[in-house]
Design a protein that fits this description.
By secondary structure, the chain is of the alpha+beta class. Helices cover 22% and strands 22% of the residues. It has 7 helices and 11 strands. A 5-stranded mixed β-sheet has the order 2-9-5-4-3. A 4-stranded antiparallel β-sheet has the order 1-7-8-6, with helices on one face. A two-stranded antiparallel ribbon has the order 10-11. A hairpin with a 2-residue loop joins β10 and β11. The two termini are 27 Å apart. The structure holds a DNA duplex.
DNA sequence: CACTTGACCTGTCCGC
DNA sequence: TGCGGACAGGTCAAGT
């Protein structure tokens, strides 16, 4: 599921692949995936790509934006005019010729290259917005700080959360209003790294715990970015390549296997409506 | 207001 | 083999 490291990897890929390209036409295969008028983006040139939390923005030279969220199964895959098949993955059904049945929007560029917005479950979206509309998006206005931005280490979780005592730590880490970009994978990994059980109530999380959480978040997110993110099921980057962070995950998707620290069996429980991976010896 | 649960979708997997 | 149901998890709406 595209979380911060995955969206960051897509952003980096798109920066090298589509900046400077002019949009020549847009095919909307699923109207629910695309909000706004395509006439407002056709003829414009891509200026820059930016990320906030798990959301991505493509800025155009006419002042319009293509604000995008991949949600659970979204992909943004670029293909040049010459190469439609991804090279080197002959047996990989996830990286195939495009469009496929999950393709919802195709953005065509002047050099006949294309950007495919694929989204199996149709939860993701692209919104055409003016700069003013973009900055007024409620989702962006309420979003918490970027964990990889300067100053995050000084961020005071305790004061942000002063009215919240009963919630468990995992649902807090998943709350985009508290901190941006953390999803199920990295919440589980950070809580393992800090020895905190996911169901711990906020009232029992100390300042020292928060300090460990912040340091661990930064370390884990940076490691994942360096590995191209995590591919659990659907995620691929802008070139259609999978990420390899899950090879280094300590608990996520490791239920039934031995804890790499203590040897106890990793368990899968349900917290905040999410599948949650925990070592009950290392985490309390 | 804080917090929890269900809805949104589609594909995969598991048991019968 | 086919079929039903559980499950996957980001965000928002509706419920307690």
């Amino acid at each position: 599921m595209p979380e911060l490291p995955e969206v960051e990897t897509v952003k980096t890929g798109l920066q090298s692949l589509i900046v400077g390209h002019t949009i020549s036409s847009v095919d909307i295969l699923n109207p629910g995936s695309f909000m706004g008028k395509k006439s407002q983006i056709v003829g414009s040139k891509v200026v820059s790509i930016s990320r906030r939390g798990k959301s991505l923005n493509i800025l155009l030279d006419n002042g319009m934006n293509i604000y995008t969220h991949l949600r659970m199964t979204g992909q943004l895959v670029y293909r040049s005019a010459e190469i439609n098949f991804a090279a080197g993955h002959p047996n990989d059904s996830m990286v195939n010729d495009l469009p496929d049945r999950s393709t919802r929007v195709i953005i065509h560029f002047g050099d006949n290259s294309k950007l495919f917005f694929n989204d199996q479950r149709k939860f993701g979206w692209m919104k055409v917005l003016t700069n003013q509309e973009l900055v007024n998006q409620p989702f962006l206005l309420s979003m918490g700080p970027e964990p990889l931005a300067d100053g995050f280490i000084a961020y005071d979780f305790k004061s942000t959360l002063k009215n919240r005592k009963k919630a468990n730590i995992k649902s807090i880490l998943l709350d985009q209003k508290v901190v941006a970009g953390v999803g199920n994978i990295y919440a589980d990994e950070v809580l393992f790294a800090t020895g905190i059980h996911p169901t711990r109530p906020l009232s029992s999380v100390s300042s020292k715990d928060w300090s460990r959480i912040k340091n661990s978040l930064i370390e884990i997110l940076n490691l994942s970015i360096s590995l191209g993110g995590s591919t659990d099921r659907n995620y691929v980057d802008a070139k259609g390549q999978k990420g390899s962070y899950l090879q280094f995950a300590k608990v996520f998707r490791r239920e039934g296997q031995e804890c790499l620290v203590c040897g106890n069996t990793i368990k899968k429980i349900r917290v905040a409506g999410r599948g949650t991976h925990v070592c009950t010896v290392c985490q309390s």
